[in-house]
Amino acid sequence: MALRNIVIEGDEILTKRSKEVTEINDRILMILDDMLETMRENNGLGIAAPQVGILRRMFIVEVEDQLIEMINPEIIEVNGVQQGEEGCLSVPGLVGTVERPEYVKMSGLNRKGEKVEIEGSGLLAVALSHEFDHLEGVLFTEKATEIRDAIEESEE
Ligand code: CO
Q1: Active-site residue 131, yes or no?
Q2: How far is the CA of 34 from the centre of ligand 1 (A)?
Q3: pTM of the prediction?
Q4: Where are the chain's structural domains?
Q5: Domain 12-155 is of which CATH architecture?
Q6: Could you report the per-residue pLDDT of 53-79, keeping only the tens digit for each?
Q7: Chain Cα centroid distance, residue 32
Q8: If 0-12 CB within 10 Å is exposed, 13-18 middle and 19+ buried, where does residue 38 land?
Q9: Ligand 1: distance of its center to the CA of 22 in Å?
C-alpha cells in the first residue's frame, strides 16, 4: 500500500462525475488499498476515488468500527432528514452544517465483485451520502448552510 496525495478543493477533478468501474482488477484493488491507507493516515471517516485523482465510482467509509468499501454504489432508499457538522479531507480546515438523510440504503459491489447492500443511519448515513456525492462531483461546501473554521481534528 502507499499513501496518495489528496486532491484539494479548487481542482476541477472534484467537480466531475466519476465513471463506473468496469472490471475489478489488480489496479482497482491497489487503488482501494491506497485509499484506505490515505484515509486512515489523515484521520478521515471516508474517502472517495476522485479525492486521490481517480474518476472511478468507488469509495470507502469507516465509521463506528465498520469498514465499508463500495464499488459502483447506487442509492436505493433514503429516509428522514438530519443536520450535522461535516468536514472533508479535500477541504482541509473547514467544516459546515449540512442536511443529509437520516437513513440511507445503497447497493453496490465489494472488492470481490459480489453484490452487497449497506444501510446506515446517523453518522453512517452522513458518511455514505457524503462519499456518494464525491462520485457525482459534489462537495459538502456546495450543500453547507454555514462554513466555518474547523476546531476539531475529525474530518471526513
Ligand atoms: Co469528502
Answers
A1: yes
A2: 16
A3: 0.94
A4: 12-155
A5: Alpha-Beta Complex (3.90)
A6: 999 999 999 998 899 999 999 999 999
A7: 12
A8: buried
A9: 23
